[in-house]
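Morning. Coffee machine broken again, so started the prediction first thing and wrote up yesterday's gels while waiting. Chain of 342 residues, entered below exactly as on the submission form.
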Amino acid sequence: MTTQLNPRHTSAYPILETAREQVLAKGEGLSESQLLEILELPDDAIPDALQLAHEVRLEHCGEDVEVEGIISIKTGGCPEDCHFCSQSGLFDSPVRGVWLDIPELVKAAKETAATGATEFCIVAAVRGPDIKLMNQTKFTIERINAEVDINIACSLGMLTQRQVDQLAEWGVHRYNHNLETARSYFPEVVTTHTYEERLDTCNMVKAAGMELCCGALIGMGETTAQRAELASQLAALEPHEVPLNFLNPRPGTPLEHQGIMDGKDALRAIAAFRLAMPRTVLRYAGGRELTLGDLGTRDGLLGGINAVIVGNYLTTLGRPAAADLNLLVELNMPIKELQKSL
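Came back before lunch.
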């Protein structure tokens, strides 16, 4: 059974009518200027925007929701200065460096699979992987594949071409490397590497045949226009998946006093990102618990989201996996079943 939709009605807002014809009917994402119109819609238009985004999701992605768990193979001590991240070794944050061993990672993969998740992502807080990290990743992938029926994704920072080729050879299904923010705002958030360096890794991953997971972190002080810019830049990259994160200000980081993004702005962003990328997996990721709460989480799932990270994140707590899974059942949203490529 699919989630019931409201009857089609004419909106009082021309951009929503344009989006209905352009995105829903033709499958063509909105342009940057059109996305800005969505992000600037008044509060009373948010339900209509979310409804349309949900219809677009069902039409172009289907009804299944993909569930994923993540775990950090190396936490803290990162040499980069991403201003939102408590894992940077340059900030006075409470997070300290720690490595997980392979048995712990296999155990985590089993626990993730038990929730019904189809994807398990191995994450490391690094600029890019060294030989030690690449070797541990290889052995971890081999052990997980031997014991758990789950797709493996990785997020190990910026890669060389050789490292991209190795990960593809080892059977990594998807690689995560977020753009985080718009090109025009990137220097305000990171100074130790460039937007172009991130983009280079994304393009190499796609060329190697791995699925690209490339996401956004909004609520960092960027303008509404820069949110539209980011959505448009992600759409141009054509990633398989876009995790949508909302800033959870962390103690000791340069953005610790930024504040929590307004929930209505977050819902506008969910609708806009879906209308920018009608066929992309749009995943609920970090910060939604604070920004949206339980009611907002429901609204987003009925507003274009079609994937969820369950459980905790890398350094912050998420909703209990059972809460998200029960909500999907309540909304009659089937969880995507694992399909291995042989």
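Strands lie at 66-75, 98-99, 119-124, 151-155, 174-176, 211-213, 216-218, 241-246, 281-284, 307-309. Going to sketch it on the whiteboard this afternoon.
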